[in-house]
Amino acid sequence: MTTTGVFLLAILALGFLITFQIAKASEYVSVLKGEKKAFEQNNRINGFLMVVFLVLGLIGVYMCNEALYPKTLMTHPSASDHGENIDTMLKITLLITGIVFFITQILLFWFAYKYQYSEKRKAFYYPHNNKLEVLWTTVPAITLCLLVGFGLYYWFKITGEAPENAMRVEITGRQFGWIYRYPGKDNTFGKKYFRMIDEANGNMLGMIWKDSAMKTPNGVQNLKADASGYDDIIETSAMYLVKGTPVKLIINSRDVIHDVGLPHFRMKMDAVPGTPTTMWFTPKYTTEEMKKITNNPNFEYEIACDQMCGNGHYSMKGLIKVVTEQEYKFWLAQQKPSYKPAEAAPAASPAPVADTAKTAAAGTANAVLAAK
Amino acid sequence: MSHGHAEVLTTHDVHHDEHGVHHHHQSFISKYVFSQDHKIIAKQFLITGMIWAIIGGLMSVLFRLQLGYPDQTFPWLEDILGNWAKGGKITPENYYALVTMHGTILVFFVLTGGLSGTFANFLIPLQIGARDMASPMMNMLSYWFFFGGSIVMLSSLFIQTGPFSGGWTAYPPLSALGDASPGSKTGMDLWITAMAMFVVSSLLGGLNYVSTVLNLRTKGMSMTRLPLTIWALFFTAVLGILSFPVLLSGFILLLFDRHGGTSFYLSDIYIAATNTALPNEGGSAILYQHLFWFLGHPEVYIILLPAMGMASEILSVNSRKPIFGYMAMVGSLFAITILAFLVWAHHMFVTGLNPFLGSVFVLLTLLIAVPSAIKVFNWLTTIWKANIKFTPGMVFALGFVSLFISGGLTGIFLGNSTLDIHLHDTYFVIAHFHIVMGVSAFFGMFAGIYHWFPKMYGRYMNSTLAYIHFWVTLVGAYLIFWPMHYEGLAGMPRRYLDYSNWASFNQFGDLNKFISTVAIIVFATQLLFVFNFFYSIFKGRKVTTMNPWGATTLEWTAPIRPGHGNWEGEIPEVHRWAYDYSKDGRDFIPQTEPIGPNESHH
């Protein structure tokens, strides 16, 4: 243990000792003064502190808001249409709960102060009042119905079917990163099967690019190559979306549960292995525009994993680039499909991910493919 | 030890043929270790819970160091954590292990075992007028299963691959696959074993509490004359009995998936670390979440109801006023108990749950706010026009109400699926549940400890230390958790050990430092409480009157230090409800006093 550590511990111990001695002494003093007098004094102090806490607390709430509100997402508009609804809902809820918060907290600490013990006061025997109780059953119930109503109105809007013209992008989580897939020219995602995953040969998603016979616990499974997968574009660097065009994300996971968290779009959906999920939204601002709106030249739409997924959870970052239609077309034209028929031999294929060292020990799935 | 022995020799002959009331042929072992006296068992739960709270709290201090000072090294960490903090920096494995254990320990071992274990055991027989629990033997077993579970959980901290580190909710596939996370190897087996023992303990305790409340009430103690503490503890036990078995079934399926080759939760999994596709197909990872949250949500109320009950009681006693709206308070406890079973999927709005199903859960979830609002307004009316004595128990009860309001209101945000999309798994959630079921349940527990300490040990705790404890903790709790709402509104995800690489979340560096500093101060203050507790057991000011707070309930009619059997001679008979304070010009009328001929009717 370092000297500073010892020093800090010593200070701590000393602090404890002093506090304890004061407390001990105050107990003796109260014995000397008489229990009643000591009680009354303690009561006055605590009653006074109740109101001090209330006042300082309210000032603190204000100051905290001044300091931290600008750091939240609320200072600039949401980057998606759904997000706007969510922000509206947030404001409605904040308003209603805020009113209740201030009223009840002020009453609580004010009553505590005002009705502190006094010899002259007689407590008011007031066991119940049905009218009052009905009042504060119905008013909260009605208010909550209001909140439920607004909430569900937006909820069904957000979780409803994606528009016909929505572009589709598949996003797959894995420990610890994201894989994006575009359907390519035919606008159809090729079939995939998780046992076909072969990182060494650039098949991160298990695309069924070839006829193959897979040994599975249920016997040999014959998989037919799916030609619609030949033009699929598989990317790991960033997901490109078009400003103003609705996008439907098809969300998968390759191993454990992840979560596609898009704070700027106010959207979120789990990635569950074996159970694809979806969500859709329409981006409103390009990344460049958001840089200006947020006044942050380094702004990026980040994808944050929002479901505990292992020791690298905190580093599981993805990127979304929202661009104009034109920029998107330009980007798309540069992309090559991931399927490389001529270079099927393992040695020739470029290893797309860093896992090359481990691929030497690739499982049976690999062997089957290589043999073909 | 020798003292205990001497007692054996003297009491053995005397009590040889005595039965019932003074049932004690006791050695040290049977009096203090394998005791069947509900009061001793309560103290065992309390002290075990306190030890757990110190461990769990210390863990939060350690990971707050990492969060507050991510780029700094603390060489002394390596001294205490060894490989987990090579070079004075907490490794990600260790960080996640600490976070996971902190959650598990605090939720289950402190705020469930420590809280309702302590007060259900201590208060139920004393407040309903019973000599002991319906089955003292089961009660003893309940503690020892808890103790066994504690030992297993503690031992998982010391194994090579580390304790479980996939979050206290233990979602598979992460918790099912050792290859996906080292913590999911042996650590997870120990975690499940410990939790299974914990569930057994909970069930043994809960069945006992329910049967005791239903069957062993003294003459005149009708259900509507029960103090609200007992109602709360009763509903807590019902919640536990009905929901813990579901959790256990979820764990057993998980165990099968881990070791039996089944696919309840597993499907379509490729493990990059070993380059293998797993054989499992057809399972649903979401199934586990349903089973987990079917307990997990009632669990929140298992934690909160005892605190509500004790706060109600303590507010009334120290306001010198009856609790306002007794029947409404019981009714709202009942409503919360029922609704607690019908809201679990609000933890799963973003799992791909059917949106219509989600909407039903929104409605049911927000409904809980109604009984909660009733309780808050009734507490406020209870202190209105009161004559408040700020005893240590009372200040904590008031703090409980404040925290319950603050944390309850943010529940209205998260229970609304539309907002949950944005706020799910962010710091907003951390702030919400730490305030509403973490700190506020702790406040209820502290209130209970300060209030019933004289009954437990025949001495008072030092009140100056108690007031310091209260004010530092109340202010500290708000300073820690209030700003976290803003981090949540920035979308900052929970369970990240370092935000510096994120353009979206790195603006809170200073705030995180501030929060960590306050957390350390608050933790140190809790040690002050622990010290006060143990010091006062031996050296505290002695209680000289049977009823130091002037309360109406039965426990204060028992001797200052009640023996096994609680009352010498007859069990007192009850003639009225528990809340006749300041009635007809009298400060209080004990429950044992018959209704006078001229007494006004309430």
What is the compact description of this entry?
In chain A, 42% of the residues lie in helices and 17% in strands. Chain A has 372 residues and is α+β, with helices and mostly antiparallel strands.
Indicate the low-confidence ranges of chain B by residue numbers.
Answer: 1-21
Helix content, binned percent of chain A: 40-55%
Number of strands of chain A: 12
CATH topology of chain B: Cytochrome C Oxidase, Chain A
Number of helices of chain A: 8
Shape of chain B: globular
Distance between the termini of chain B: 52 Å
Domain module tally of chain A: 2
Q: Oligomerization state of this entry?
A: heterodimer
Radius of gyration of chain B: 25 Å
- Rg value of chain A: 31 Å
What proportion of the residues of chain B form beta strands (DSSP E)? under 5%
- Morphology of chain A: elongated
Q: For the largest interface in this structure, which chains are involved and how many residues does each contribute?
A: A-B, 136 and 136 residues
**CATH 2nd-level architecture of the largest domain in chain A:** Sandwich
> DSSP helix count of chain B?
17
What is the name of the CATH class of the largest domain in chain A?
Mainly Beta
Mean pLDDT across the residues of chain B is 92
CATH topology group of the largest domain in chain A: Immunoglobulin-like
In the sheet with the most strands of chain B, the strands line up as 1-2
CATH class category label of chain B: Mainly Alpha
Transmembrane segments (chain A): 6-26, 47-69, 89-113, 134-156
Enzyme class (chain A): translocase
Cofactor (chain A): Cu cation
Keywords (chain A): Copper, Electron transport, Membrane, Metal-binding, Respiratory chain, Translocase, Transmembrane, Transmembrane helix, Transport
